[in-house]
Every structure is written in structure tokens, then in C-alpha cells.
Amino acid sequence: MGAADLLAFDREHLWHPYTSMLDPAPTRLVTGASGSRIAIDGVGEVVDGMASWWSAIHGYRHPVLDEALREQAERFSHVMFGGLTHEPAVELARRLVELTPDGLDRVFLADSGSVSVEVAMKMALQHQRGVGRPERTRFLTVRGGYHGDTFDCMSVCDPDGGMHSMWSTVLPDQVFGERPPGIGGDVAEWASGFRALAAEHAGTLAGLIVEPLLQGAGGMHPYPAECLRVFREVADEHGLVLVFDEIATGFGRTGALFASEAGGVSPDVLCLGKALTGGYLTLAATLCTSEVARGISGSDSGVLMHGPTFMGNPLACAVASASLDLLATGRWVHDVRRINRGLQALHDIDAAEVRVLGAVGVVRLDHPVDVAAATEAALSQGAWLRPFRDLIYTMPPYVCTDEDVATLCAGIAAAVKAG
Questions:
Q1: Measuring CA to CA, which of 111, 157, 248, 360 is 20 to 30 A from 150?
Q2: pLDDT band at residue 162, thresholds of 50, 70 and 90?
Q3: Are residue 85 and residue 183 in the same domain, yes or no?
Q4: pLDDT score recorded for residue 168
Q5: Which residues carry this modification: N6-(pyridoxal phosphate)lysine (predicted)?
Q6: What is the CATH classification number for the domain harbouring 296?
Q7: Rounded mean pLDDT, 370-392
């Protein structure tokens, strides 16, 4: 099939994220990818400002990751994880325990970010049952969050402005505090209200789940690290399982390996995904403390009630360990700082608000983005962007050059004018 035939079949038969089947949004045909760039039919090579939805931190066709994938494929591609194990899974778990915040020494290997959050919520619920508090079935969170598309995940996403508000009548009823203040905002005032809300509902709460330091798809909202300490204190005071969803923030995106480091806080449960395999294969991990694991073991079933078919996929685990090898060199620290410096140019754009944190650059408009027009304008400058709501942003691969970052800033500026 030629490009036109492929796109025609795609339009008639393939569902893309958050699009209509009757009136689908335009799609573009990718014909190759290398380093920080993707090749789009009829457009040419453009800088990928999205890093494939924040996952391809090392860029495309990285020789170390390619080799890890080939080597494992020559041994075996997959075996069930029930009753069996293998070196790639064990090695990845060992590395994650070593790298993640203190105390997280039990690892559940899931197959997507949403599933890792579902598992984290199950862990909190089963832990409460195991320690004799089965009445604790709700979660405390904050407005503006996003945790995935599956049902329990949707229930802790923003209930009003989020993508899942249409499901409000069938989702579990959770407790929502106010969104943390922006950088430089009044943390004390926000914390007072959040503490009062937690105390009011404590008897029904199993856990507290948040995205640390940066709320992602709920609005690209950074907030002070001090808030992380408030979350930890509230969880400890009321016996809640503290869950940090670092699917978007993990592996260096905010400037620290894990965003929780900024507040000096260790959660009870940690969710990882997206960049875990450097964007090569779908894989996620949910880590928890031994204390949480003991609570789960004391619950009715005595076991954690979850087990995906592709749990611990050897190909994905092997690539994930290779990705961690690349991060272990420390180069990402310099790359993220360099990208951050380049993204400061966004402050020259006339817009409602500009936010830059780590390798994240966000421009907020005072109106909803015309996605089609903004996308075309960015492409004309050699940048691939995917705006949403009133936001035009970039979270590029760490391998972007200074020239690439300048291209992305030019693309964002053009998108702002067009959108």
C-alpha cells in the first residue's frame, strides 16, 4: 500500500487516542525515526517535541537499546510470569530497588502506566484490609491530576476539567483537595485546607495518590517541592498509603532522577512507566515497601490480586535495564539542564503563561488551542508538537541538540500565533 492508501485505510478503520471515528482528526504517516527526529511522509524530518508522549528519552534507534532488544530476542521473547522467572526481570527489579527512593523493595512489573496505577490502588486497598481497616475504600488526591484511562485511574483524575468527567456517575467516589499552588504560590494556605480535608475524611481513606512536582496531562502544572512533604505528613498522620505516580516525571524529566527527590520524600508505593524502556516497548512497574506488602499478605486473599499476561516481558525488561545503563552514565543530568536553558526562550513568547521545569516547556494560551492550525504551524518550523486544551508544550528527548531545542521553541512560537 502506498502512503495515500495507508492513510485512507487508517481514517476508515483505526481509532487514534481521543478522536472520533466518524470525523477523525488528521493523522500523518511516519516512515522512520532516528535520534531526536521522526520522518513524516510529505513533510520530511522534524524534531519530535513529544518524545513519543514523553517516553523516548534517549531518542530513536539508540544503538545500546537496539542491541539489548536483539540480544534478548535471540534468547526468547516472552514466557509467562506465573511460576516462572528470568534474568531480565530479576535484573530490572534489582536495578529499580537500587535506584528508587528508600524503602521501595517490592516490585510488580505491569504492562502499561494505567495498569501500574490500578495495581497501586489495589495495593492500598488490600493493605488496609490486611491491617484491619476494610472500611477504608476511598482515595484522597488533588484537582488537576491525571493517572490513566482505566476505571480506577479515571476516578482519581480531575473530576471536572479532566478528560474523564463524562464517567463521573459510574466511577468510585474519591476525595479531591485543591490543586497545589504554582511555583512561588502560598503553600501554607493550601496545606491548611488540604490537611483539614484529610482529617474530615480520614476514616474512609485507604490512600493518597498524586503526581509529584508536575501534574502532566491534567494541565502541565508544576508545583513547589514543599507540597510533597505535606503529602507525606498527611499520609503518616492518618494511616494512608502514599502513592506517587511518576509515570510522567520519572527518569530525569523534572531535573532529578525521580521527582520525589526534590522534596526528600519516599512514598509507600511508586508507579513508573513511559520512559522506563526508553520508549521502545510498553512496560511499567509498581514498587512498594515491605510494610505495604505485609498488609497485602494479611488481606482476605493473602496475595496481590493482579497478573497481566505480559507481566515481566523479557524483551521489555532487557531494554529497560539497558535504558537504566544509559541513565547511569549521568549524561542525562547535563542534557536536561542544557535543554532547560534552551527552553527559557519560551519566556519571550507573548502568552497567558509560560512554565519551564527540567526538560519541560509549557505555554498556556487564554483560549483553547486550534490543534490542527497549531500543529501545521509547528511543522512548518520543523517541530512535531501535540497541543491540548489551552496548552502548547514540549517534553523532548534528552538527546536533542541546542539547535533542536531552538527549533522546538520556534515551533511553539509559531503554534501560539496560529492556535
A1: 360
A2: confident
A3: yes
A4: 83
A5: 274
A6: 3.40.640.10
A7: 97
